[in-house]
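Sample entry follows:

:::
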Amino acid sequence: MMMRTGLLATLACLGTLSVAHAADYEDFARVLSVTPQYEQVNYPQQECRTEYVPVQRQQQRGAGGSLIGGIAGGIIGNQVGGGSGRAVATAAGAITGAIVGDRLENNDRGAVVDQQPVRQCRTIDNWQSRANGYVVTYEYHGHTYTSVMPYDPGERMRVRVSVMPR
């Protein structure tokens, strides 16, 4: 008997559910207006360029002029000097020849200016407008409704209608 009562209660509930579900249906409403809603979105971009800047670098000094000048000066000093002054004249000639030879070879060797590439970048704003929804005003059975939708529904739109008893 208890089992029979439980079975009847279950059947009654299932019957009520199907009746309530049958009261929901879909229909079409007439769209009165569609207004897109825009938002500003920043898509930053990086802009880069290469600039060439002057950079000084020292050239290496050569030693060949000093060496050859020292030898030549020593030979000349040895020729000029005589007796015990010959050694002093040879040394003085070698020193003077080395200085003159160095200046001749390295006189125009100073700082060399090269161009070095330097990449410089900056971020620039790129603002764009994009639609993020549509305010839709529609009419269904003489009543006007407004809703925000993610798309433009066109001239008519599908609506879900629910009928519930009071």
In short: The chain has two domains: 23-44+125-166, 47-121. The chain has three helices and six strands.
